[in-house]
């Protein structure tokens, strides 16, 4: 039967370090390569599934690093799943929960590989295992984060010319607010009027700085302000969200179901960025989305600069959400010097398209993976 056929024979994890086309700066880190954990799951029926978990600058964006993920997968998460049916994803998540607390990125990479392997076994796309797609393409957002205003303007215009992206996110908080605002003003002046702009502060500002600078972001045409204040500063975030004339998006502040409930009820934002690495599995991502949506929070498909492997995993889950008001980022495949798959996700008409085919719908490229795998 299916459970016997999809019993997990082996799980392995490799550290990948893939160079990016340019420096990518955030308030608390700056990268020239992306660190991924690349998970391979082999089933008794001979099917192999793949998953990816992303980091930004080591344990800087969140607490997990590629090294920690590899150690915890090898020592705890993989042994807990040997012999377990890949088709029982919820039960696999429970097994992983018993084996290790938190470790959501590592768990999400394994969960993705299980979905891929089960989808391939049943010859259905992963979204079918998650309720089925209600959309097959998504308005895509590109992140500008070199810190060099002229370069960022040129890059944004190039994305529009290519027909890949016409919505942008600008990373703020690594320079002082005046410098950030000057970058933003240069961008706003160069982009077509009404271009949707997200400003991601990555927790860098205090409440006082928000009170001072959020009106300027509004005046510069910003349509969404992401995580301006440190995660966990619930009362201050709620005050900021209430006084801001631009919607505030929760990102680092919401990982677990309890955080989704608490932050939505406290109204620390009116939009939530969903990411598999924060929530631990595709099913949990859907539950987090439901908790937030039930309290009127709108949804945004976030990313952590995944390759087409992790980006496909996200699209498979995002495709099944009844509402996804703000589209998705998933620009990672286009910021890598070389994508990790044989055929990358398709970007056209300013949309990123849900891949067709069983499982995640992408095929990792073994030569590229070998090339960028850390030599142990
Ligand atoms: C984040 O905080 O949203 C996603 C895009 C980007 O530039 O950084 C990441 C993480
Ligand atoms: Mg963010």
Descriptive report:
The protein is of the alpha/beta class. Strand 2 (30-43) and strand 3 (48-55) form a beta hairpin. It has helices at residues 2-5, 66-81, 89-99, 104-122, 126-129, 149-162, 177-190, 207-219, 234-243, 257-265, 276-279, 282-294, 308-318, 366-372; strands at 8-25, 30-43, 48-55, 137-139, 141-144, 167-171, 197-200, 224-226, 248-250, 271-274, 298-301, 346-348, 351-353. Helix 2 (66-81) packs across helix 3. The relative contact order is 0.16. It has 2 domains: 2-123 and 365-372, Enolase-like, domain 1; 129-353, Alpha-Beta Barrel (TIM Barrel), CATH 3.20.20. It has a 7-stranded parallel sheet. The mean pLDDT is 98. It is globular and about 60 Å long. It binds [(2S)-5-oxo-2,5-dihydrofuran-2-yl]acetic acid and magnesium ion (MG).
**CATH secondary-structure class of the largest domain:** Alpha Beta
| CATH topology heading of the largest domain | TIM Barrel
Distance between the terminal alpha carbons, to the nearest Å? 38 Å
Mean pLDDT: 98
Which ligands appear in the coordinates? [(2S)-5-oxo-2,5-dihydrofuran-2-yl]acetic acid, magnesium ion
Total number of beta strands? 13
How would you write the strand order of the largest sheet?
Answer: 5-6-7-8-9-10-11
Oligomer kind: single chain
Count, helices: 14
**Which second-level CATH architecture of the largest domain applies?**
Alpha-Beta Barrel
CATH superfamily of the largest domain: Enolase-like C-terminal domain
Low-confidence stretches: none
Strand residue content = 15-25%
User: Helical amount among residues, as a percent range?
Assistant: 25-40%
In terms of structural class, how would the helical and strand content be classed?
alpha/beta
């Amino acid at each position: 039967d299916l459970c016997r056929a999809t019993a997990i024979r082996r799980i392995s994890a490799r550290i990948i370090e893939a160079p990016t086309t340019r420096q990518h700066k955030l308030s608390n880190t700056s990268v020239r390569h992306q660190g991924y954990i690349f998970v391979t799951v082999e089933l008794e029926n001979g099917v192999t599934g793949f998953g990816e978990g992303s980091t930004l600058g080591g344990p800087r964006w969140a607490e997990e690093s590629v090294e920690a993920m590899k150690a915890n997968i090898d020592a705890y998460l993989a042994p807990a799943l040997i012999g377990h049916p890949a088709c029982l994803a919820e039960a696999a998540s429970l097994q992983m929960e018993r084996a290790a607390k938190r470790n959501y990125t590592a768990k999400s990479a394994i969960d993705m590989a299980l979905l891929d392997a089960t989808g391939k076994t049943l010859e259905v796309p992963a979204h079918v295992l998650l309720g089925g797609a209600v959309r097959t393409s998504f308005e895509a957002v590109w992140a500008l984060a070199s810190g060099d205003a002229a370069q960022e303007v040129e890059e944004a215009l190039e994305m529009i010319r290519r027909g890949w992206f016409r919505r942008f996110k600008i990373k703020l908080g690594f320079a002082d607010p005046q410098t950030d605002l000057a970058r933003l003003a240069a961008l706003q002046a160069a982009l077509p009027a009404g271009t949707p702009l997200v400003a991601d502060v990555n927790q860098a500002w205090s409440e006082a700085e928000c009170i001072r600078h959020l009106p300027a972001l509004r005046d510069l045409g910003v349509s969404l302000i992401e995580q301006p204040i440190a995660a966990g500063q619930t009362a201050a975030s709620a005050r900021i969200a209430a006084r801001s004339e631009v919607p505030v998006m929760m990102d680092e502040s919401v990982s677990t179901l309890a955080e989704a409930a608490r932050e939505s009820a406290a109204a620390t934002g009116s939009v939530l960025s969903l990411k598999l690495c924060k929530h631990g599995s595709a099913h949990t991502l859907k539950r987090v989305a439901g908790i937030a949506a039930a309290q009127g929070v709108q949804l945004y498909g976030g990313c952590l600069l995944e390759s087409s492997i992790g980006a496909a995993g996200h699209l498979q889950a995002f495709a099944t959400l009844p509402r996804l008001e703000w589209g998705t980022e998933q620009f990672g495949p286009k910021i890598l010097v070389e994508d990790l798959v044989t055929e990358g996700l398709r970007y056209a008409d300013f949309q990123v398209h849900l891949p067709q085919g069983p499982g995640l719908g992408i095929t990792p490229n073994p030569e590229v993976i070998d090339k960028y795998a850390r030599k142990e």
